[in-house]
Amino acid sequence: MAGNSSSFKLDNATRALFLNVNTSIAISVIYMIVTAINLTGNGLSLWLLVFRTSPKTPSIIFMINLTLTDLALGAALPFQIAYQLQGYHWNLGPNMCRVMTLVFYTNMYCSILTMMAIGIDRYLGIVRPMQFRQTRVRKSIAVFSCLLMWGVVLSVLWPLMTTDLTFDVPELGITTCFDVLKKDMLPTLSAWAAFLFSMVFVLFLFPFCVTTFCYVSVIHKLSRDSKTAQKRRAILLAFIVLLVFTVCFAPNNILLLAHTVLRLFYNESLYMAYKLSLCFSCLNSCLDPFIYYFASKDFRQKLRQIINLSISMDSMKMDRKESFYSAHNAVEGPVGEQRRLSLMPSTA
């Protein structure tokens, strides 16, 4: 965090990050891999969820919402890759910087809230099946919940939408994008505290606790009166969701809180660690299709149909090739033999 760029000098940790070419390349490579997996996996998932899965249950609606946020992240990552490879120099202007930053954080927090919503829906459907039995009402609640999630996230992230997030660093000759924040982005320390509290506790810690409770309750219920396959899928789903929370979301939010407190009150920095955690937070978009697979029976069936169709088409192609070569050899065999006999010298 800084005042105006003319009198500002980088702290050692941030300068080390900007000058560390290996870290920049490593982060860029991770972003490239995430982009490829994100666009492929979530593109297929969106097609299955929208055009091949019916009826549109609340879980499917939540999954569509999650897929759209993941695809938005996949579309924004190439800009971040270019920014990294150019030595943290942003040349697309303040508005595009705001858009890219907003996409990063809306993906994270909308994903967290959507996973919580999917967990609540499974909890009500398995642990409390007598509640919310009317599908039509549940669909309207699901749509309203998605809109509410976006509203809550955008309201918390409002300072990012109204601030110029670019910053000139004269000593390095670069213009950063959301790597150096202005202290006057928020007017007081109380406003900064409210901003951080909303991001870390409201948008992360509370949903994490609710999601954990829902999946533990579902596993406990299924362990008593469920088939082994259904119980195994529920355990795998809970494992993937909690893995996403602990690996992708928890480090970033914890480091965000620690770095900001250290920077505001002690003039210390954890920025390199925070930057790496932000990179790993994007991995959630690669793991989300696995959540769809274990959470939705319809999604599993449609995906298996596509895989089986692809395998059958490949086998048909192989059979055609084999039949073609066998027929070709059957025709060519006697003719070739006759030609060889006719070319043999006479022994009379």
UniProtKB/TrEMBL annotation:
SUPFAM superfamilies: Family A G protein-coupled receptor-like (SSF81321). The chain crosses the membrane at residues 25-50, 62-82, 102-120, 141-161, 191-216, 236-262, 274-295. Its main location: membrane. Residues 41-292 form the G-protein coupled receptors family 1 profile domain. It is found in: Cell membrane. Signal peptide: none annotated. One of its GO terms (molecular function) is G protein-coupled receptor activity. GO terms for biological process: phospholipase C-activating G protein-coupled receptor signaling pathway; positive regulation of Rho protein signal transduction. One of its GO terms (cellular component) is plasma membrane. This is P2Y receptor family member 8. It comes from Cyclopterus lumpus. The gene is p2ry8.
